Each structure stands twice: as structure tokens, then as C-alpha cells.
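Cross-posting from the modeling subforum.

Setting up a comparison between two proteins and wanted a second pair of eyes on the formatting. Protein 1 (sequence, then C-alpha cells):
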Amino acid sequence: MQSPIAPPAVVFVDAVGTANDTYTIPAMAGVDYLVGGKVVPAGTYPGTGTVTVTAKAQTDYGLAPGAPASWTVTFKDSLAGAAPRITGIAKVGYTLTANPGIWSPAPVTLRYQWYRAGIAIVGATAATYRPTNTDAGATLTVRVIASKTGYTTVGKPSAATAAVAKDSLAGAAPRITGTAKVGYTLTANPGIWSPAPVTLRYQWYRAGIAIVGATAATYRPTNTDAGATLTVRVIASKTGYTTVGKPSAATAAVAKDSLAGATPRITGTAKVGYTLTANPGTWSPSPVTLRYQWYRAGIAIVGATAATYRPTNADAGATLTVRVIASKTGYTTVGKSSAATAAVAKGSLAGAAPWITGVFEVGYTLTTGVDPWSPSPVTLRYQWYRSKVAVVGATNATYTLTAADAGATITVKVIASRTGYTTAGATSPATSKIASGYVPPAPAPYEPPAPAPYEPPAPVAYYANCDAVRAAGAAPLYASQPGYRGALDRDRDGIACE
């Protein structure tokens, strides 16, 4: 009776590459394996084309019902191609291309997979790849997968690229707009940078040296910048890109700013001896240093550099102006002139009325008493009047009474003058009427006079002081009476020792 057996299956290996395709005949007692009608011993054999292996039971054996007894495999051929090459610049933003070479037998379907540091990049399955910021610093490879119906699919990796470099941002040199002047705003115009968006930073420089804290797109020059040139450097950055900085051209030398102020005004009376004041108004930006210069008829007055000025004799008849000169560090010095005053009027001389001393009697000398005039020095002239009529030639400080003065009142006028001042005059109070004094009678025809007793003439009175006048019973003493003198008449009213 035959023993039923189930023959083991033949093992087929359809590996990549023709040389590696095999089929293996198992060893089994009671079973022969036949290829092409011939018994093939147990072992492994190269597989090419279509191979059919059948199992046949030996004498005294029988195949178990339903046991497989035939195996057929058609070995796929292997596609041939070189390892791919990557061409292009391994840099963020630049395109890399997988060059797959020639595969055979053509035609062949090719697929691609790009890898970052050995890890497949999701979605990167085209023949080209543009590195992104994520790839910066890593190496890239590509795997080309070739497939064709009836052939084993084959994949081949490329060599790795160099580490992907960050891309360079592209932009023009910045431009500075605005006025290069202290206090004015300058603006850095960075132009267009790509690929957008890009983060921009700024650094301003004074004569090539970075200005601490000046890192905005605008800059307002200060006093320190006056006379220097300015530049700005725009620094562009973006993740995955090399940071790039570009400097602008230099500005012109920064000009000092101009101070602003109103035209000064002169207040006060334009008159010799009076004080004038320069009102400079408000200047900005404060604080501002102010200086002054006064001018006479457009010519600078030496030493007149204060905010006030007192016109002198030399100014009489001329107009005056003042120039206010404003200065501040970092700013252009500015001067502004006032409007002219009216012509400077002469000053006024001040003095009290004079008085007359002496005996108010023909033959006596009268003297003018004068208090000081101001401002000194002052030149004084005199004119004597007889009952308000000027006495010709009587122009001294003293006057001797003549017979023409008898019965008249006498006054004296003091005329004060000084260069740059209006001439002024003051008249004394009038004296009492001038006494005639002793006048001898006209001679008569000679007749021997009758002898008369001798009477000496009355003595001329003289009093040392008012006590003596009172002791003599002569008080009050009038100007027409003997013994009157101005020294006894303190109030100059013509009555002494009242």
C-alpha cells in the first residue's frame, strides 16, 4: 500500500539583480522534483525566465489528496541604471536637480524622494528640490526609484550634497533722505529686499563711528553731529538666510541748526541821559545765549554791549538801533537788528533859580548865587536885567549898580549849557527898588556962606550880623537902607533880619 505524502513547496527568490534570482528544491523522501521533465536534485538553482517545478511521488509513495504538486514562477528582469547625481547650489532658495542618468531597458518610470540628513522630506518627490530654511546646515540626498512592468523596481541613492548654506538676501544700498542739519530728521530708505518678508535693522554712523542708540529708521542730528557726515547701515535678516548689511552714501557735513527769534524792540525815551532797553523777544530752542551791540546811525558804539544803553552827548540828533546776537552750541549764530529809534533828543539840564546878594543901592556890587546844575559839568552864563530889560554888557556873575538902576528892580538870569543838552535858563527873584544913594547938589553961585556950626556926616552903617542890627534898633533892615547886605538876608527877599 502506498504512503501518502505532501511535498514541501519550492522556494523562489526574485531579488533585485538577475544574479540573485533563485529557486530552491527541497529534499523529501518519496518525492522527485522535475524541471522541464527532468528530475532535479535538492538544492538552489539560478532563476531566469519562467520556471515550472512539479512534484512526483516515487514508487511505494503517493501524493496526498489536495497537496500542491506544481509551482511556476516567472522571474522579473532587473532594471539597470547608475546612482543619480545632484546638480545645483546647495543653498537655501536655490534649485537642486536630480540627474537620474540612463536606465535600461527603456522606457522606465522614475520616481524621486529627497532626504534631509537621511530622513525623507515630506512632499519632496520631484526631480528638483529648492532647499528651505529648515534645510540650512544639513546635507541632502535624493533616491531615484525606477520601475517597469515585468521588472523589479530598483531604487538608487545619490551622494550627499555639502551642508546647505543659508541663502543671501538681496537688496540695494539704502538712501538717506532729509536735510543734514542739526534738529532736522533724516530717514533711511532701505529699498526693496528679497525674498520677502525680511527683518531690517538700522545703525547710524557719525564720520564712520557708530552712534550709540541710533538704531531706528530715522535719525535727528544733534549738536555733536555738526560738521560731520552721517551714514546708515541697513542690516537685513531672515531665518535660513545669511544676514546682509549694506551702507548708504554719506550725507553732506551736518549743518548747524538756525536759532529762531523775533526782531528786537527798543523801549524807553530816546533822549540824552535816559535809559533805553533792548527787548530781545523769545528765542528757540532754548536756552540761548544772547549778546547785544548798539549802533549810532548804523555805526557800532564801542563798549555798548549790554541789554540797556544810556544815550550820551554824542548820540544827540542821531538814531539808535540794537542788534541781538543769539548763539548756542551746534547752532548757527543768528543776529537780528531792531528798528531805529527817533533821533535822540538833547537832554534836559536841571537847576534852581539863582539869587542876588549885596546892597541894593547905586554904587554897590550885586553877586549871583547859584546852586549846582545837573548833570554836571555845566557851563553857566549870566544876564542882568533892569526892570526886566536886559542891561547891555551885564553878563558876569556880578553887577555894580549904576545911577540908571535907581528906582528899578534888578534880576539876573543864569543860562546853563552842555553839549548834547538843551540850553536852559533860570531867573532870580527881583530885588527891591534900588536906592539912589547920596547925590551932591548942583553948585550955587558963590556966596560966602554964613558960618555954621560943624556937623560931621552921618557914618555909613555896617552890621556884622542880625544881632547887631537888632541891638541898633534897625531891624528889620530893607535893601534900600544903609547897612543892608545879602549875607543878612537869608531868604533873598530884600528884607534882612526880620
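Protein 2 (same layout):
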Amino acid sequence: MKKLTVLTAALLLCMLAKPQSTIDTRKYIEVTGSAEMQVQPDEIELEVVIQEYDRAGKKVRLDDVNDGFVKVLQKNKVNTDSLKFIDLQNHDWYWLYWWEHRGDYYQTKTITIKLQKSTNIINLVEELNEKWVQSIRISKSENSKITEYRKQVKTEAAKAAKAKATYLLESLGEELGGVLSIEEVPEANNDYNYWYRPVNLVSNSNVSMPGGYAENGIKNVTAIKLRYEVKIKFAIQ
């Protein structure tokens, strides 16, 4: 009985000594603001697959095809120093590619090219419409000021969240207080579950910004879409 009393007293002492967690009773509102911008790329990477072909009953070798390819690029003001040959042997799936194409009569070569705004991509693609071109695709598009544009979009998203919180509280006769927390929502393109999130978590406060100086970008190319969401918790005064 004496041991039990001592144990109970020790347990009570520990409970009193343990700091009690405080409950935040402040009133708050949590909203999500979003913003987007269309940015024209000022540099793109073109992936071209060239191949051997028959001309007058004779096979044109890959080296000769490559010479003709380089001439087309030079004619269209493409810096041939930027050409890169893609070595398929560095890819995990090379063995599958080799197995499927091991008996091909015509050899192919995959090349990537960096294009600047000085190149008319439409004219280039039209001149590459040859028998020795197997495929053409844009493998990458970039803008040299993309970091600056991302900051602008995130800033506008935060402003949209504040505007939404303000008019919602004003409709209830309340006043907006200071910021309690800010959380950047993962980018839609990188979030597999983006389209499956509950509707009440997605803000309808969208701000469309002007295109990112399209005159400095490459024309006739799909723009880069930047979209960000910011979740902000505001105190209610």
C-alpha cells in the first residue's frame, strides 16, 4: 500500500511538471490564392532523328545525310556547335531498342539542337521535310528569366489570397489581421493528385498576368505556363 501511494504521488508530480500545450484560440481565416503567366520561351531544344535512305536505287549513307543536315542548319542560322548526338547506349532501355531494330537496313542518328530567337523555326522545319528525316520534336523549352517570372507569379498569388480574405471578412463585418502562416502549394505539373484534390481546397481567386515579354521569345512555339498557389492563414481582428 505504501509503495502504491509513493507511485501515485510520483505520477501526479510528473503530470504537474509536464508543460501543458496551449490551444490557439485566435480567430483566423485560411484562403488559397493562385496566379498564372504565359511565358514565351527564348530558347528551345529540338530533337531530330535522321536516317539513311534510298536515292535512285542506292542507299545514302548516314555520313552523307549528316552533311546535308548540317547545311540546312547553317542556312537557317543555327549554331552547329550546339549539336549533340544522343547515345542510346546510355539509356536503360537501349537493349530493347537494339533488339527491335537490330535488323534494320537503314541506320538512324538522334541529334539535339539548341535554337535561339534568331532562327525561324517554321522555315527550319519546312526545310527538314526530307526523306532522310525520320522525326522532329521539341524536347525542351526554356526562358532565361524564368526565375524572375516565377517570383512575380508567386507574389501575385499571395496578393490574390489577401484580396479574397479581405472581401470575405468584409462581407461578415470583420477586419483582416496579420499573417499567421504561409504555405506554398506544390506546382500542379508536379503533383499527381492535383486534379483529384477536394474542390473546397482550390481557390477561385485567379490572377492572369500578361505574357512574359513575348517579343523577346521564339515565335510559333507553345508558351510555358507558370501557375502557383499559395495558402495563407490570416488573423481576424
